[in-house]
Amino acid sequence: MDPIAPSLARLQHVQVRYRDHTALHGIDLQVRAGQVLALLGRNGAGKSTAISVLLGLRRADAGQVQLLGGDPQQRDHRLGLGVMLQSTSLPPMLQVDELVAQASACYPDPLPLGDVLQRVGLQDLARRRYGQLSGGQQRCVQFAIAICGRPRVLFLDEPTTGLDIQARQAMWQAIRQLVAEGCGVLLTTHYLEEAEALAQRVVVLEQGRILADAPLSELRLADRPRRIRCRSTLAADEVQHWPGVQQVQRDGEHLQVLASPAEPVVARLLATDAQLRELEVQGAALADAFLDLTREAA
Ligand SMILES: Nc1ncnc2c1ncn2[C@@H]1O[C@H](COP(=O)(O)OP(=O)(O)OP(=O)(O)O)[C@@H](O)[C@H]1O
């Protein structure tokens, strides 16, 4: 990840209030070129509010907002944007190719229609009317519209909700291609494996405050215990007392051990039980870090 890649969208000390409720308490965040920033948080944490402010759909009550180096309200800056929000309605009688062509016409240098449909996996549905598509297929059309203008910065608010595995992977691939071409992406998602698959940097919001802002690798791995699973006859009570072991559970013929550091525990398991089989060691996931952070803040 390039820490000095150009900043494409930025909030500085931004505060937003809805009547008597403060949704953002002076937050800072930055979307850089060629990177995916995952904005994570529980329901109501303030993610959509932050996106609305960056897009100029809502004004900040305090702080500075920059989009492509200027004011999000300016038209020129909006032309460098791609946006897919949580809910969108499109004319149900228009065909997929007509909708994408219509959106492309707004931009100075759009991607060719065939390229957009191919990136999103919509070639076979090009002549289908929007109102005749499934919910997941409609999300793919919304994504096609978000990327058709060759955006410099792309905002994706829970883009893969309701998508099947193939469609989700097609969307991930399209996002990776855009990022490789230099696009900066702000992604919100409740699927933490999606953030792990795509993001270089993660911001965790909780009740309008930033709990963490770090490269994915730091957040996921920082001294977190690993999960060891194996088929073994060792008693859980015995393993529980070994140095580094935090938790042991028996699950039928399998032992599940949470340990940090994991390596000496793995070595001791192998040395103590010559019959041990099916050993798996799982690294700490972003989900563990997220749950720890939000639990501590509650
Ligand atoms: N128009 C509004 N009027 C009053 N309060 C609002 C309004 N929009 C959002 N809020 C409140 O602001 C807070 C942040 O909401 P926001 O929609 O930004 O959260 P979110 O992180 O996007 O949640 P989700 O994951 O559920 O989409 C919530 O407490 C919400 O109830």
Give your account of this protein's structure:
Pfam families: ABC_tran. This is ABC transporter ATP-binding protein. Residues 9-232 form the ABC transporter domain. Keywords: ATP-binding, Nucleotide-binding, Transport. GO terms for molecular function: ATP binding; ATP hydrolysis activity. By secondary structure, this protein is α/β, with parallel strands linked by helices. It folds into 2 domains: 7-221, Rossmann fold (3-Layer(aba) Sandwich); 226-282, Alpha-Beta Plaits. The chain is built from 11 helices and 13 strands. The protein has helices spanning 47-55, 75-78, 96-104, 113-120, 135-147, 165-180, 192-198, 216-221, 236-240, 263-272, 286-297; strands spanning 7-18, 21-32, 36-41, 62-67, 81-84, 153-157, 184-188, 201-206, 209-215, 226-231, 245-251, 254-259, 277-282. The strands form 3 sheets. A 6-stranded mixed beta sheet has the order 5-6-7-3-8-9, sandwiched between helices. It has a 4-stranded antiparallel beta sheet with strand order 11-12-10-13. The mean pLDDT is 91. Residues 18, 21, 23, 41, 43-49 line the site of adenosine-5'-triphosphate.
